[in-house]
Amino acid sequence: MDRWLRAAVAVLALLTGCAETPAAPAIPVPARHPGTSVPVADPLYPGHGNPGLDVLHYDLDLAWDPRAGTLTGTATLRIRPTVDAASVRLDFQPYEMIEVEVDGVAVPAGVTGEKLTVPVAVTRDRPVTLVVGYRGRPRTTPMPSHRTDTEPLGLTVTRDGGLWTMQEPYGAYTWYPANDHPSDEALYDIAVTVPAGWTAIAGGTPAGVDGRTFRYTSADPVATYLQTLAVGRYRKLTATGPGGVPLTYWYRPGVDERLLPALRKSPSHLSFLVERFGPYPFPTGGVVLVDSASAMETQQMITMGGRVRADRFDQDLLHEFAHQWFGNSVTLTHWADLWLNEGWAMYAQLLYDQSLDGYSDDELEKRLRERDAAPRKRLGPPAWAKPGYFAESNVYLCPAAMLKEVHDRLGDRRFFALATAWVQTQRNTQQDRASFTTFVNRQTGEDFTALIDAWLDSPTTPA
């Protein structure tokens, strides 16, 4: 493994100067804001997100009352309009509106059809500050998938009055006004006030506790689907990952103790990934356990369901850690390219499985080809995404099989150098199929276009 890392680092040093990143429109400030994005309209879920707005920063001040089941919030958004518009429109659930201000001036606003409309004209590249005060009971939204391990999306209230959320491909709007689309990443500051004896956990780096208020901050931009929130009577464990990265595990006493041995493997999971893909991309990491049968790669603080199958928990946790590189640090531009996130994380998981079980590369090839055929036939090739079949098996296994073919052609040294260059030089950007293909061809000096196209588009497993 060490020789792969040394080779990857050497190649990365040579390639950094020629890496391509998406160009962003100029904004009238001395330097590019780290939360600047290039939002796009989504081909699968056009009702979510607004390509006319680029949210630079979310400041969320929240309070949860478990007895009343009421969330009270003040969301302060710094927004860069990307077009001239007569109003500001964001995704938001119908909460009771307490106050709405734009640049310090009170304005009327309303929520219709899960869209917050603020009737204030905005000008391209002239940022505004929107403040929204609200309160109400959170409600989830249906998951557009036939998977059996998922629940409704968004902020979920538990039977004992706690909270947790998973929100891919959307659902952040169930607890704060959001441009709920992966192409618009932003910085975050989150403060959550809870009753005595309760804990609030969010994505980002812990920024301290003031009385009953828990604070978190994100210095790296975050897509809305990668943010998380959990509230409950949690206990905390700490550890240290490779490079000294601080890790925090949050578990529910009397519920999650059986999973603690698996959580404590997190440093070894990260070491496995660092050896292949370069340094962990964030200042902290961790895992919060919630009452779910699923798992989510939420940024810096993975959300793991306590009801994930016991025989899959270890592999699933490795998979979600792999997403910190593939999906979080380098994020897809729109949901039609979900394979770009899941294919890499799935292939990393399969390499981990192989390291545990000791089966050969030929056996991995055989298993992948056998497992590729059924989802490709039933669901279509991975690039032919369907709105009602989100995150089903074809976007996991089929692109993982494609990466195995690339790996076979390049060999270990060149493949892991390519993977490391991809995630390290494209850090904090949004990418798509075209940019990935261009990157692979440029970095390897070979033309992989036909191979990539065949595995992403063919209705049958390519030869």
TrEMBL record:
Enzyme class of the recorded protein, top EC level: hydrolase
Cofactor(s) this protein requires: Zn(2+)
InterPro entries from the UniProt entry: Aminopeptidase_N-like_N_sf, Peptidase_M1, Peptidase_M1_aminopeptidases, Peptidase_M1_dom, Peptidase_M4/M1_CTD_sf
Record's keyword terms, sorted: Hydrolase, Metal-binding, Metalloprotease, Protease, Signal, Zinc
Peptidase M1 membrane alanine aminopeptidase domain sequence ranges: 269-455
Domain of life from the UniProt record: Bacteria
Keyword Aminoacyl-tRNA synthetase attributed: no
Catalytic activity: Release of an N-terminal amino acid, Xaa-|-Yaa- from a peptide, amide or arylamide. Xaa is preferably Ala, but may be most amino acids including Pro (slow action). When a terminal hydrophobic residue is followed by a prolyl residue, the two may be released as an intact Xaa-Pro dipeptide
GO BP term, pick one: proteolysis
PROSITE patterns, per the entry: PROKAR_LIPOPROTEIN
GO MF annotation, one: zinc ion binding
Signal peptide (residue range): 1-23
E.C. code: 3.4.11.2
Sequence similarity: Belongs to the peptidase M1 family.
Protein name stated in the entry: Aminopeptidase N
Species assigned in the record: Paractinoplanes rishiriensis
Organism ancestry: Bacteria, Bacillati, Actinomycetota, Actinomycetes, Micromonosporales
